[in-house]
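pls design
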């Protein structure tokens, strides 16, 4: 795509966005560096350049949104990604979050239930030379064929923690997910100690689009 140009102006806008996210409380320098590396404007229509670098969520089609940069940073920080971590993301959307995870050295697997979004994002990420493996399907099932994972990140509001996620997580692994069916959801981090024991922490309220059941075209 010839329209994929990352100019000094874009880089400058991105630096400002990163400083804004830092000022809001993100401390993990690796997360901030990853955000500075990924050209967020590639994930939005070119006519929305200014909006791409504001700390706001934005529609990406099929009734879905690219999460607010601060929310992406929070979830990424909570996930404590290390180099070589095998990460499953539920809700590929624009692919922006998947690229941030990959910048941190993760091997990324991501599921999207909207076929149109899945196809569009698959084309974009390969154009950008990202290696994340994308799947079209229902995230509630996880991705049994590629399990186990070290981390699972859910980027849509989950009504509960699906059993498949714990089953497909390595001992010592983490799940970060927003839980709730109302207007806002509680951000939770679940640590799997072993097959019988988990630990749970809460991190305040966020607003996500709901995680939905069956695949849709
Ligand atoms: N991580 C995304 C944000 C996506 S918004 C980004 O960086 O842009 C949440 C996404 O989850 C939407 O694209 C929505 O279609 C998807 N989704 C909702 N329910 C799902 C499910 N059951 N399985 C997989 N994806 C789902």
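designed seq:
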């Amino acid at each position: 795509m010839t329209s994929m140009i990352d100019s000094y102006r874009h880089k400058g806008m991105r630096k400002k966005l990163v400083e804004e996210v830092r000022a809001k409380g993100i401390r993990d320098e690796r997360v901030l560096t990853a955000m500075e590396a990924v050209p967020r404007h590639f994930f939005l229509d070119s006519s929305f350049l200014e909006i791409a670098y504001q700390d706001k969520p934005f529609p990406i089609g099929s009734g879905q949104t690219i999460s607010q940069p601060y929310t992406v940073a929070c979830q990424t920080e909570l996930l404590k990604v290390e180099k070589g971590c095998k990460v499953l993301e539920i809700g590929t959307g624009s692919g922006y979050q998947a690229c941030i995870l990959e910048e941190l050295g993760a091997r990324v697997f991501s599921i999207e239930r909207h076929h149109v979004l899945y196809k569009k994002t698959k084309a974009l990420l390969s154009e950008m030379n990202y290696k994340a493996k994308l799947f079209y399907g229902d995230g509630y099932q996880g991705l049994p064929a590629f399990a186990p994972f070290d981390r699972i990140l859910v980027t849509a509001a989950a009504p509960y923690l699906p059993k498949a996620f714990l089953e497909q997580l390595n001992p010592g692994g983490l799940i970060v997910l927003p839980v709730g069916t109302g207007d806002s959801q509680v951000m939770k981090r679940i640590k799997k100690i072993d097959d019988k024991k988990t630990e749970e922490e809460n991190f305040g309220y966020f607003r996500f689009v709901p995680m939905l059941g069956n695949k849709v075209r």
